[in-house]
Write a structure and sequence with these properties.
Order of helices and strands of chain B: EEEEEEEEEEE
Distance between the termini of chain B: 41 Å
Distance between the termini of chain A: 37 Å
Number of strands of chain B: 11
Strand content of chain A: over 45%
Structural class of chain B: mainly beta
Helix content of chain B: under 10%
Strand content of chain B: over 45%
Order of helices and strands of chain A: EEEEEEEEEEE
Low-confidence stretches of chain A: none
Oligomer: heterodimer
Mean pLDDT of chain A: 93
């Protein structure tokens, strides 16, 4: 069974640009969560989607948005990039909503110059 | 509200020695508790979980954790450290419903040969 797939794995952007990250969950998993990981702040929850609906949202500005498609694949978008957005963005899927048993992808490492 | 405190951002042990990583949680409802491990440049992997039932939980790679409600703790142990255990370990708490899963700040385990 394929794991959680995140694309792209690495990307470099400049301030003011926008970025879209993609996540394909494990087959059959209906919940997708996104986390931002930085050395200073650790793992911070961005949002969680289940059946195309956002169920939970973390404390991030509106520049961070996401969505989930009918096949459970998810995307997150960051607009007007800032230097502080440089981070590892992790996607995790789970069979049901908010069980805590998360299966993580390897992440998308974003560098903002 | 729920939170997790991991004591010690860095822990060093000798190969073959006992591994003890500390985690205390706060939750207003019966918690779900988890330990995850992250190897360099990878996503997080579930080590073990506690939801209900037996308070001593066994996980992968010889790790186990004990849920102690009276101490609000969920410490992770392994009798004998192996070089391959060097990684960062995250404790997490969830409670189902509308509460998101909250991660601790992580403990980096160094294993000294």
């Amino acid at each position: 069974k394929a794991g959680v797939t995140q694309t792209p794995r690495y990307l470099i952007k400049t301030r003011g640009q926008q970025v879209t990250l993609s996540c394909s969950p494990i087959s059959g998993h209906r919940s997708v969560s996104w986390y931002q990981q930085t050395p200073g702040q650790g793992l911070q929850f961005l949002f969680e989607y289940f059946s195309e609906t956002q169920r939970n949202k973390g404390n991030f500005p509106g520049r961070f948005s996401g969505r989930q498609f009918s096949n459970s694949r998810s995307e997150m978008n960051v607009s007007t990039l800032e230097l502080g957005d440089s981070a590892l963005y992790l996607c995790a899927s789970s069979l049901e909503w908010n069980t805590g048993e998360l299966f993580f992808g390897e992440g998308s490492r974003l560098t903002v110059l | 509200a729920q939170s997790v405190t991991q004591l010690g951002s860095h822990v060093s042990v000798s190969e073959g020695a006992l591994v003890l990583l500390r985690c205390n949680y706060s939750s207003s409802v019966p918690p779900y508790l988890f330990w995850y491990v992250q190897y360099p440049n990878q996503g997080l992997q579930l080590l073990l979980k506690y939801t209900t039932g037996a308070t001593l939980v066994k996980g992968i790679n010889g790790f186990e954790a004990e849920f102690k409600k009276s101490e609000t703790s969920f410490h992770l142990t392994k009798p004998s450290a192996h070089m391959s255990d060097a990684a960062e370990y995250f404790c997490a708490v969830g409670s189902g419903g509308y509460q998101k899963v909250t991660f601790g700040t992580g403990t980096k385990l160094q294993v000294i040969p």
